[in-house]
Design brief:
Elements: H1 3-6, H2 13-45, H3 63-100, H4 106-126, H5 128-148, H6 155-162, H7 169-202, H8 211-220
Length: 221
């Protein structure tokens, strides 16, 4: 049996390259996207979003200075660093939704993006397992639709929707301020709940009288 019997059309390096090139690009793109989504949703769904610990900078021999440094660093994290992180989350979900629903108005996309991010952040303070599931649903839904039907994504229309961001800059600012305020409320509520639980655990419990003690009291009477 000759090789032409197995491959009647012959073997051509250029044809093989033309076939393998898009496959390699798909694999590379999907790998980068899935790695991004994996790290993105784990970061977004974490209750403590800051990986760095600033407690060592809060130590001081003077109690007043310790409280002041703790307050300053706490405000710096959630008033300056968190807005940048929140803007990244907000922008990422806005882009994803614009590809999923290019026909929807940009104002609706902003509204849904904020609702998704806010729901994930609230869930993170209740249970991180739920927040992780919520955070990865939309990104992996985009990947699933892309795998099933590539033609579904209309890149030009999606970018046309994103260009409307300049017309909604005030709405974006209001949404970001709301998201920052929501995080502050969640942090304060979480701290209060944790303090209440500590007080309840430390509260001494009055031991119940034993049955033998009751009998001895009754016999004495």
């Amino acid at each position: 049996m000759e090789i032409l019997d197995i491959f009647p059309n012959g073997l051509d390096f250029s044809e093989a390259y033309n076939l393998i090139e898009p496959v390699a690009l798909y694999i590379l793109g999907m790998t980068v996207y899935t790695l991004f989504v994996f790290n993105f949703y784990r970061f977004l769904a974490a209750k403590d979003i800051f990986g760095f610990d600033l407690s060592r900078y809060e130590r001081s021999n003077h109690p007043v200075l310790s409280v002041i440094s703790h307050t300053v660093l706490y405000v710096a994290k959630y008033l300056f660093v968190f807005p940048l992180i929140a803007f990244f989350w907000f922008a990422a979900f806005t882009v994803l939704l614009s590809f999923l629903a290019p026909d929807r108005p940009f104002s609706d996309i902003l509204l849904v993006s904020l609702a998704v991010v806010g729901t994930i952040r609230i869930s993170a303070y209740v249970t991180e397992d739920l927040s992780r599931d919520l955070a990865k649903i939309l990104p992996f839904a985009v990947l699933g639709i892309f795998i099933v039907n590539v033609s579904f994504f209309k890149t030009s229309e999606s970018f046309d929707v994103l260009r409307q961001a300049n017309e909604n800059i005030e709405s974006i600012l209001y949404y970001l301020v709301f998201l920052i305020a929501l995080e502050f409320v969640l942090r304060i509520a979480s701290t209060l709940v944790a303090d209440v639980k500590k007080v309840i655990r430390r509260r001494p419990r009055t031991p119940a009288p034993s049955p033998g003690a009751d009998q001895s009291i009754a016999s004495a009477d």
